[in-house]
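Hello,

I think I submitted the pyridoxal-5'-phosphate job twice by accident. Can you confirm which output corresponds to this input? Input:
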Amino acid sequence: MEKKNIDWGNLGFGYMETDKRYVSTWKDGAWDEGALIDDPMITMSECACVLQYAQTIFEGIKAYETVDGRIVTFRPDLNAERLANSAKRMEMPVFPVDRFVDSIKQVVKANESFVPPYGTGATLYIRPYMFGINPVIGVKPATEFQYRVFTTPVGPYFKGGAKPITIRVSDFDRAAPHGTGHIKAGLNYAMSLHAIVDAHNQGYDENMYLDPQTRTKVEETGGANFLFVTKDNTIVTPKSESILPSVTRRSLMYVAEHYLGLKVEEREVYLDEIKDFAECGLCGTAAVISPVGKVVDHGKEICFPSGMDEMGPTITKLRETLTGIQMGTIEAPEGWIVEIK
Ligand SMILES: *Cc1c(COP(=O)(O)O)cnc(C)c1O
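Support: Only one job matched these inputs. Its output is below.
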């Protein structure tokens, strides 16, 4: 299929309307068969549950062209499972795992001409989401839901290489103890908007959120999990009930252990021990890993030895190995790469 005439090298991370989207409706206790549609607009009641009480969850996943010209996606079964867990916690119906994977394939195929060519660094970002759509005024879950998937081409997260970022220890919390930090709910992002705008106004790229109960342990940022590298090259990631289980972070931990032969640990990480780490990175679908050069804790600077000019050596190796697996230049573990075309 002919590619769209898009300046792939200069795409940002923004929304661009593509040709088709998928929709399936839950009504009277069952999902309908679902379909691809043309209309990007949604019409709903002014009293829709999603508008009044924020009953909405989402996923983020990418499709891209490999070195040998296939169109693939990465571990969609994990996104399907995570969406199911989010749905249960939010009193929403589960969209079956096999139908989730099928819907991703359908939407990507239908928007094939928007999949950026191999080597541009750009990808087709896929956004599955689900929300309560019928009118609800007394507080209770909706009884009608839409599951939808749209796609949008996005540019490489880092233009001209990944420069280390500076983050601050936030005085705001992103998740409550026993709250919804571990699911991908829109409400977690709504309450983080003020914190991120404030961080940017103060000259920081991101917020480091601490555990809300004791404010002594590292959790994550607004949309990415932490990986730390110790001075003797062990990979450490924080363990907590209120962290969102990143597919990228789980994949990188596997790569560290099974491809690079490194020791890996998932454990509580205290704020006062991060000064001893050699490297720090943030993991998520959009950027794979962004290097962190500096953490500022209320004026006190914690500078990682990897510095502010480039990514540290271990994080670089992790990033190159995972992107190689994704792009088809390094052999993938069984089931990680799902072929769409
Ligand atoms: C989506 C998300 C991540 C990253 O998860 P990936 O599956 O790697 O994209 C990390 N933290 C939060 C809070 C998120 O919502």
